[in-house]
């Protein structure tokens, strides 16, 4: 059902601005900084241009490029202006990520980190103006000549059956074949990126651990992580907080912000690596009698993404929090965090940080927008305009969920009106699925689906359960509905209206599928 | 709302048969052995009477009474027959509880343990017939003369504001005043008994621990439990699995079996005692590296109730499983488990065994009916006739719940149409309540209630959250509705029909209260 978008292959767009002007950038804009939606992007103001020209403060591109990330005085360009950001770096709310643009133009990054597209940000930057790009190095007097590196150029070539929602950054659902086997193959595992895929060389990779007591940080190579510690294998499902947002929009008649994920922003894999608990112990942290003041573990990804989880989750060996170095028996792929990702089973996937290169123990939870804003659930009445972001906790553990992935004729049954309904069911916190109810008469009556007896690895049930239900094919105007129950006997809400939230997260109302719609699109 | 039943005080009924023939016994019959409902109680058959009379096998009551629980050969009477049950005790499915009737008549116990009222049970008993009661000691040739002890005679005198559903055994809801303060006073804490309240002398009380490795059992006095181990204090809510069953019946239009609890089969208290983990360690169990074969901890109550919880829950010190010796700062009362009860916070109250006197570590979970049958959730289509009892797990952790306890005019507001809605919200597993949504227009729109900032003691949020919502009074035909969200972002199902189950447990759909109904009964 979800894989009707057809083929999507990697596009390499040479012109950077063009590359970032597409729907992906628009998506990021909405996702990351919806507040800025009402603000028009500013036009370049060159009021100081003539003055500067008079004082001769023009720089050749060649010189600007030498003020890169590793230089003593990093510069950036915006339009035809040049800024020395050296003294701003320490104060930059996003940290040293600003250095990515050093020696280069800042616009492509701001097209991703759209939070910068605000008057006050422009004003801050203006304080660091040191001159202009030499007019000879400009195209049309505005855009610096020559190619600027496309940050997406290193993104991997992906399986053509992924259901791509945005290409740059890549956001793609797992296709039906990825959702109907207990282990999703790595190639078909859903992809949810905020940025491009970082290119990390195995040799230079370092994991830095800061145990928060003022002692020296410790670093670990990939080899250290794979050989110094016992390796643990678990099966665990990762689910995007926005999975089934499209269903929420449709069911409630209200559009939430964010990508319109169907039921495919979820996949299940086998993960292997050391327990983070063991690595923290090696780094000098007292994992058995931890100091009470450090309550959070923050993960930093090479892509500048960061977020934290409560320390109890990490310190309990039965919670199986790994630094995953392998996925499905092989080295991680770039899309899934090579060389190392955090794997926080039972929590929303946003906490399983990819390309993780730094872990800090903190008193407070991460101050990143992915902790403080993006992944929180609010009431159906609450809006972006009125919200107190601090009034809701960030999503960690997640509610019981289920979805229908296929409905097809039952080829093992002679009766032409028999059909097979298949799907997945999943709950956060390691809570096992104990029952799956299916209705083929719009919810009037229910029958139990057969839960497949797959082998879950780990101390709790971190993986989804796949289920199958065989029944007669109901009239064409019927809805097939699924709802699941987890081992805490939590059940799913009946409808989307009362759980709608403006971020469109936690969409776990019953999955209803019109039977006529399905037999049309599914020709299996 | 819940306390409209008026006063209920202790009744001491001298005639035992009469005492047990009331609604309490009928209730127990339905709760514990609904399968037997269709079977008519048997009439006494005295076919062997004449034969026995001829052989002279008549016994005086005086002699029969000497074959009590502590005798070498315990006897029981049924009608005018006498049975030597010595050789049956080991095979008795209910264990040594059968000894309670030794030296006495079995009928009053069978009126409670109604599972015995079956032909095959009568046939088993008949194998142990040894004679008859001397006709001189019978009334009307059938019933033994003299008073037989009323097992309920020791039940405490209870607060008259408890909302009594059945008196013998006592099942009573907490009244509104018990539901509207964070800590429910002990006198107003709801009562849910299967039998009478055991009379246990502090001096003779012993807790026996069997750590399951074949080593000698260890015993502890109450003083041992209170002085040999660090004492921990937690606040924890206990909720009957059947809380809000009446709402489920009403909302679904289908009657589930069991007492028709409203929203008052739940209360919150402060509990104090040693961690069970520490007591097991003292008894010789390796709590840090437990043997993998022992997965369950079974609690036995003096009332013959027994049930088990997974060992992980007990061994994790952050799960706060206590042997509670105090409730709200005082010695436990008889109704709440004096001298010691298990306190398994976050689990359904059925696992917090009262009057616990024995704890065993087992490979498998308890085989008692309270584990294997009574407290399980099934699908809305499943019935007692078709059910595979093993297809559902017993309830341990419980789903998110909320209820309205009061709706009253807002005396702090000059507007005559303003009102205050109050209630509780609670989730199992220590999951905190993060949001309470209230609707006063039948669920069309929602607003967030204010969650009171009470202090929760313990490693997780084991207590309910009380909430308050001030709003205008809606038209008389409106429903006020509440639904809560816990920290795993689980929400409550909209309606009862799809979660109805024949045992009537886990009733956690939205609580809907018609506004006209409330202002009628609540004259605050």
UniProtKB/TrEMBL annotation, chains A, B:
GO terms for cellular component: mitochondrial intermembrane space. The chain crosses the membrane at residues 12-30. It is found in: Mitochondrion intermembrane space. GO terms for biological process: sulfur compound metabolic process. The keyword Oxidoreductase applies. The keyword Transmembrane applies. Its main location: mitochondrion. It catalyses: nitrite + NADP(+) + H2O = nitrate + NADPH + H(+). Keywords: Heme, Iron, Membrane, Metal-binding, Mitochondrion, Molybdenum, Oxidoreductase, Transmembrane, Transmembrane helix. It comes from the Eukaryota. Residues 56-134 form the Cytochrome b5 heme-binding domain. Its cofactor is Mo-molybdopterin; heme b. Pathway: Energy metabolism; sulfur metabolism. GO terms for molecular function: heme binding; molybdenum ion binding; molybdopterin cofactor binding; nitrate reductase (NADPH) activity; sulfite oxidase activity. SUPFAM superfamilies: Cytochrome b5-like heme/steroid binding domain, E set domains, Oxidoreductase molybdopterin-binding domain. Its EC number is 1.7.1.3, 1.8.3.1. This is Nitrate reductase [NADPH].
């Amino acid at each position: 059902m979800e894989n009707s978008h057809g083929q999507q292959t990697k596009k390499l767009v040479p012109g950077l601005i063009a590359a970032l002007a597409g729907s992906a950038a628009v998506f990021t804009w909405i996702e990351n900084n919806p507040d800025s939606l009402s603000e028009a992007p500013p036009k370049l103001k060159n009021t100081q241009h003539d003055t500067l020209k008079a004082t001769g403060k023009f720089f050749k591109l060649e010189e600007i490029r030498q003020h890169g990330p590793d230089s003593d005085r990093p510069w950036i360009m915006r339009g035809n202006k040049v800024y020395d950001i050296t003294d701003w770096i320490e104060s930059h709310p996003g940290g040293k990520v600003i250095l990515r643009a050093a020696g280069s133009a800042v616009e492509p990054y701001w097209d991703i980190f759209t939070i910068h597209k605000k008057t006050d940000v422009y004003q801050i930057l203006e304080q660091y103006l040191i001159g202009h790009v030499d007019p000879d190095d400009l195209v049309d007097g505005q855009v610096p000549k020559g190619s600027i590196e496309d940050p997406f150029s290193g993104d991997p070539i992906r399986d053509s059956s992924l259901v791509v929602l945005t290409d740059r950054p890549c956001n793609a659902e797992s296709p039906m074949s990825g959702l109907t086997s207990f282990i999703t193959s790595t190639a078909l595992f859903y992809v949810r990126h905020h940025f491009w895929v970082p290119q990390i060389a195995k040799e230079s990779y370092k994991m830095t651990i800061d145990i928060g007591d003022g002692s020296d940080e410790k670093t670990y190579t990939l080899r250290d992580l794979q050989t110094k510690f016992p390796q643990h294998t678990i099966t665990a499902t990762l689910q995007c907080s926005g999975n089934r947002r499209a269903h929420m929009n449709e069911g409630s008649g209200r559009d939430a912000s964010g990508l319109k994920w169907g039921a495919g922003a979820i996949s299940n894999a086998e993960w292997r690596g050391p327990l983070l608990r063991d690595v923290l112990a090696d780094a000098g942290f007292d994992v058995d009698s931890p100091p009470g003041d450090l309550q959070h573990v923050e993960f930093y990804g090479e892509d500048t993404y960061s977020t934290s989880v409560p320390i109890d989750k990490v310190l309990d060996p039965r919670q199986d929090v790994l630094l995953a170095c392998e996925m499905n028996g092989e080295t991680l792929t770039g899309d899934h965090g090579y060389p190392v990702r955090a794997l926080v089973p039972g929590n929303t996937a946003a906490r399983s940080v990819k390309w993780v290169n730094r872990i800090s123990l903190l008193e407070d939870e991460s101050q990143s927008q992915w902790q403080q804003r993006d992944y929180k659930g609010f009431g159906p009445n609450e809006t972006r305009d009125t919200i107190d972001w601090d009034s809701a906790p960030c999503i960690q553990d997640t509610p019981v969920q289920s979805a229908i992935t296929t409905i097809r004729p039952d080829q093992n049954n002679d009766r032409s009106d028999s059909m097979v309904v298949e799907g997945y069911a999943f709950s956060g916190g390691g809570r096992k699925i104990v029952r799956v109810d299916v209705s083929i008469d719009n919810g009037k009556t229910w029958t139990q689906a057969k839960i497949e007896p797959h082998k879950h690895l780990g101390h709790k049930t971190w993986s989804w359960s796949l289920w199958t239900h065989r029944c007669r094919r109901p009239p064409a105007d019927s809805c097939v509905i699924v709802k699941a129950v987890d081992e805490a006997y939590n059940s799913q809400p009946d409808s989307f209206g009362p759980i709608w939230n403006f971020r469109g997260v936690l969409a776990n109302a019953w999955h209803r599928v019109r039977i006529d719609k399905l037999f049309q699109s599914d020709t299996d």
